[in-house]
UniProtKB/TrEMBL annotation, chain A:
It holds the Pfam family FAD_binding_2. This is Tricarballylate dehydrogenase. It comes from the Bacteria. The keyword Cell cycle does not apply. Keywords: FAD, Flavoprotein, Oxidoreductase. NCBIfam families: CobZ_N-term, PRK08274.1. Residues 6-433 form the FAD-dependent oxidoreductase 2 FAD-binding domain. One of its GO terms (molecular function) is oxidoreductase activity. InterPro entries: CobZ (IPR012831), FAD-dep_OxRdtase_2_FAD-bd (IPR003953), FAD-oxidoreductase_2 (IPR050315), FAD/NAD-bd_sf (IPR036188), Succ_DH/fumarate_Rdtase_cat_sf (IPR027477). Its cofactor is FAD.
UniProtKB/TrEMBL annotation, chain B:
SUPFAM superfamilies: 4Fe-4S ferredoxins, Respiratory nitrate reductase 1 gamma chain. It comes from Tropicimonas sediminicola. This is Citrate/tricarballylate utilization protein. Signal peptide: none annotated. Keywords: Membrane, Transmembrane, Transmembrane helix.
């Protein structure tokens, strides 16, 4: 059976939509196969909020400039050099032309949100957030003639030599097979498949929370890897942050993040500190805390602050646990009370002159003689009431994925697959070997989605 | 019940405050993001700032079936209507009309009947034009109290509102700010200026904003026409009927056309919009009010067109009856929203001034 569609796009988030719109504008007949129902369409993109963008001068909502070298240097810092420089620079350079393209396809930007002023120069925020971007793209895609099937779960892509011969999917209780000329995979990572995460991480992964969509189970990724499609990345690497331990298992999104770590001490379940809470401003550190917490017993951490710090950070969705004494707080949080008091007293004793305290700048207010040290914002925890939050590892997306070249094309050991391209989180491991840079996922998705759409349309023409 | 409505809106506002993705849409979010805890007064103020543009609802990643089950436009619409009912004087009147379109229809019929009776019983003292059906003095005797009573009632309600939201002394700059927002209906344009999401899910359009502008400016023109007539009558001894190129007609005819078109458009849009993203229980009351206002406009225009025919006394009774009901119901129907919205925008202008950069009140993190 030949398909009435030239191109099948697997997935329904930002990268998939960018690919579909680009291909449709080039004249291709495009079908989007989105696993989620309409109300949950858009994958992790529905939880995103900004786009990291290079710019030579003020551009849209972005102020000043943010050049390629600075952008690349920021990426090198967070990935410790584990990136593909060619692909990374391609993403960075192309991001500048993406912003006007996004606006032309319905995305609206807003000034940097309150509490995120440090990103005003580098990241363009979507008005209404990622779901409004997704909504706008679906409207634009549909006006371009793209067809969308929701609750269409792709189960298999048949690799025949150097091409994909057909695509199997289920929809409304029936299985279907289509034979599009080209296929674009943009169906994200595998983080929602706890069993796969556990294979990579060990049993610790069962305690991880998944910040985004429960639909990214890596079905297509696993299917392609089994057939010998080239892979990239380490299965234990992912975008993981420390979030409120009370967050739902899936889809908690932005509201479960906690910004209070720099003003706190963080202890494990034995009431012991394990890392410098004041190493850097939070937007530059939140992404390492997921792994730090994952390495602690039971994969849990506890943030302790006192009354004077309560209003220094963005409120989170769950109110803090509150107590008049440290012992009472320890009791409420299931920590050993005597040990918590000892840890706090040791920390307090190591604090020095706090007159230079400045909540939004690296203030150098540090501990002395404490291991691990707290190198900024170190103020003694003395003023009741005391507040606590539990911290757990929240996984955004996994980095193990499909290896692509600069045309977003997939390959096997014997060479490129003629009609298969990949975009978004499913290939982001090519650029993000480890670590994360805020707003870079949307950059990768937009840049490589557009490339994949262009290449697939050219092939199908 | 009101406590539950406030509590539900508070629960949702706290989630919004941890997200902030919607900050650029309207006046609600910058005001919301400035608080860490929400008093009942804060929630009431936020509710009255909300114009039900629905941008935040369709952009929200936490709407049902998500377990957070956010529907802020609905939660705020319910608190808003409840606040109008609580603050109204007398409150039972508001509870009867805000949620019951049939009550508005019944009140209108009562208005017609009253005017029929007046025309038959009092009739004319030998005047010209409309005054041949009902004398000028009789009209004044009926409409002066019907105009002044609602104003007094609204004043009581607004005073209660102002106290509840902690309003400060009003200055000229606050009024300039608030009237500027109203004149352009900025909160229905959204921060990006593409309009709101109303009649077709997440599609942005200016339809509701333009329809509302037609109603508002049409109403104001009609009101100006009546005022002009009053001044001409008492100030200059120029009595009705007025010619086409007189001030009352030059203001009133375009005003009536705009009001009729605008109310029709709004009613049509309301039929397409998802009722569950607003105060579903008040849908009938709102629709009844829109139709009554539309009837005031259409019957006014018809009266002008048929003024010289035998249908005039009938049309006069219908028009004046509708006007009478409309005036008397003003504090107890959706018409009240204009006054409360204005008060909320004045209060918001005060908030912006209180927290202007450099005052030390801006958020630090």
């Amino acid at each position: 059976m030949t398909s009435q569609f030239d191109i099948a796009v697997i997935g329904g988030g930002n990268a998939a939509l960018c690919a579909a719109m680009t291909a449709a504008e080039a004249g291709a007949r495009v079908l989007i196969l989105e696993t989620a129902p309409k109300s949950y369409r858009g994958g992790n993109s529905r939880h995103t909020r900004n786009f990291r963008c290079m710019h030579g001068g003020p551009l849209g909502p972005l102020v000043d400039s943010y050049g390629e070298e600075e952008y690349f240097a920021d990426l090198l810092k967070v990935t410790s050099g584990k990136t593909d420089e060619g692909l990374a620079r391609l993403a960075i350079r192309t991001s500048e032309e993406c912003l006007p393209w996004m606006e032309a396809h319905g995305v609206r930007f807003q000034p940097s949100l309150s509490g995120t002023l440090s990103l005003a120069r580098t990241n363009a925020f979507f008005m209404g957030g990622g779901k409004s971007l997704v909504n706008a793209y679906y409207r634009t895609a549909e006006s371009l003639g793209v067809e969308v099937l929701y609750e269409a779960a792709v189960t298999h892509l048949e690799l025949e030599g150097d091409r994909i011969a057909w695509v199997d999917y289920t929809h409304e209780g029936a299985t279907h097979r289509i034979e599009p000329k080209a296929v674009i995979v943009a169906s994200g990572g595998f983080q929602a498949d706890t069993e796969w995460l556990t294979r990579a991480w060990g049993p610790a992964a069962e305690n991880f929370l998944i910040r985004g969509t429960p639909y990214n189970r890596g079905v297509v990724l696993a299917d392609l890897l089994e057939q010998g499609v080239s892979q990239v990345g380490d299965p234990t690497q992912c975008h993981a942050v420390a979030i409120d331990g009370r967050a739902p298992k899936f889809d908690g999104g932005i509201v479960t993040r906690l910004d209070c770590v720099p003003f706190s001490i963080v202890v494990n379940k034995d009431a012991e500190r394990f890392y410098d809470e004041g190493e850097d401003v939070w937007p530059k550190r939140y992404a390492i805390w997921g792994r730090l917490v994952a390495a602690q017993p039971d994969q849990v951490g506890y943030v302790i602050i006192d009354a004077k710090s309560l209003e220094l950070f963005m409120p989170s969705v769950f109110p803090p646990i509150k107590a008049d004494t440290l012992e009472e707080l320890a009791d409420k949080m299931g920590l050993p009370p005597a040990k918590l008091r000892a840890t706090v007293e040791a920390f307090n004793a190591a604090c020095g002159d706090t007159s230079a305290f400045h909540p939004t700048e690296l203030d150098g207010v540090a501990t002395t003689g404490l291991e691990p040290p707290k190198t900024n914002w170190a103020r003694p925890i003395t003023e009741p009431p005391f507040y606590g939050y539990s911290l757990r590892t929240g996984v955004t997306f996994t980095y193990l994925g499909l290896k692509v070249d600069e045309t977003a094309q997939c390959s096997t050991e014997s060479g490129p697959i003629r009609n298969l391209w990949a975009a978004g989180e499913t290939m982001a491991g090519s650029i993000l070997g480890q670590g994360y840079l805020a707003g870079f996922g949307m950059t990768i998705g937009t840049v490589f989605g557009r490339i994949a759409g262009r290449e697939a349309a050219a092939y199908a023409a | 019940m009101p406590l539950d409505l406030l509590q539900e809106a508070r629960r949702q506002a706290e989630i919004c405050n941890a997200c902030r993705y919607c900050e650029g849409y309207c006046s609600v979010f910058p005001a919301l993001h400035q608080k860490r805890v929400f008093t009942d007064g804060d929630i009431t103020q936020l509710a009255n700032l909300c114009h039900n543009c629905r941008g935040c609802y369709y952009a929200c990643q936490y709407t049902a079936p998500h377990e957070f089950d956010l529907n802020l436009p609905k939660a705020l619409a319910e608190v808003r209507r409840d606040s109008w009912e609580r603050f109204a004087w007398p409150a039972p009147a508001a509870r009867a009309f805000h949620t019951h379109g049939t009550m508005i229809a019944a009140a209108s019929v009562l208005g017609f009947a009253l005017l029929f009776l007046a025309i038959r019983a009092i009739g004319s003292a030998g005047g010209e034009g409309f005054y041949a059906a009902l004398s000028h003095n009789a009209m004044v005797a009926i409409f002066a109290p019907a105009f002044l009573f609602p104003l007094a009632s609204l004043a009581v309600g607004l005073r209660r509102y102002w106290r509840s939201v902690g309003g400060a002394r009003i200055r000229w700059a606050h009024l300039v700010g608030a009237f500027g927002m109203v004149a352009k209906m900025k909160d229905l344009a959204a921060g990006h200026g593409d309009g709101c999401n109303f009649e077709e899910e997440d599609r942005f359009s200016h339809a509701r904003r333009y329809a509302h502008q037609l109603v508002m400016y049409g109403f104001l023109l009609c009101f100006a026409a009546t005022s002009a007539g009053t001044v001409m009558h008492y100030g200059f001894g120029l009595h009705a009927p007025y010619g086409l190129f007189s001030l009352p007609k030059l203001l009133g005819v375009p005003g009536g056309v705009m009001l009729a078109a605008g109310t029709g458009w709004i009613a049509w849009l309301k039929l397409s919009a998802d009722r569950e993203v607003g105060d579903a229980t008040a849908w009938g009351g709102e629709m009844g009010f829109v139709l009554l206002l539309g009837f005031v406009a259409v019957s006014g225009l018809a009266l002008y067109a048929l003024g010289g025919t035998g249908a005039m006394p009938l049309m006069l009774a219908l028009h004046l009856g509708a006007v009478l009901s409309f005036f008397l119901l003003t504090p107890y129907t959706k018409m009240a929203h204009g006054f409360y919205r204005l008060a909320a925008l004045v209060r918001d202008a005060q908030r912006k001034q209180e927290t202007a950069p450099g005052t030390g009140n801006e958020a630090t993190a």
